[in-house]
Amino acid sequence: MRQTTALNKYLNVRSFMKLRGVQTLLQQMQDKFQTMSDQIIGRIDEMSTRIDDLEKNIADLMTQAGVEEIEATPEKAKEGQGS
């Protein structure tokens, strides 16, 4: 009886240690994933700002060159090709 109790305690401790290790690993993975997600979102925000700046610079250059912004609808594009 005593050996069975000791064995059960050993197995319970061992199971607890394995579970603790799994929990630690999961927490490390979650932390790493969060860090990577934050970096990706930061890069996307930076890229968005660069695109906005680029669009503004293009619009400024078009204004300086005297070019009006042209937005052709599909009907107008077809009419222009048929002429």
Automatic annotation (TrEMBL):
InterPro entries for the chain: HS1-bd
Its job: Negative regulator of the heat shock response. Negatively affects HSF1 DNA-binding activity. May have a role in the suppression of the activation of the stress response during the aging process.
GO annotation (BP), single: cellular heat acclimation
Ranges in a coiled coil: 37-71
UniProt-recorded name of the protein: Heat shock factor-binding protein 1
Family named by the database record: Belongs to the HSBP1 family.
Quaternary data: Homohexamer. Associates with heptad repeats of HSF1 trimers and probably also HSF1 monomers, and with HSP70. Association with HSF1 trimers and HSP70 coincides with attenuation of heat shock response and the conversion of HSF1 trimer to monomer.
Record has Translocase as a keyword: no
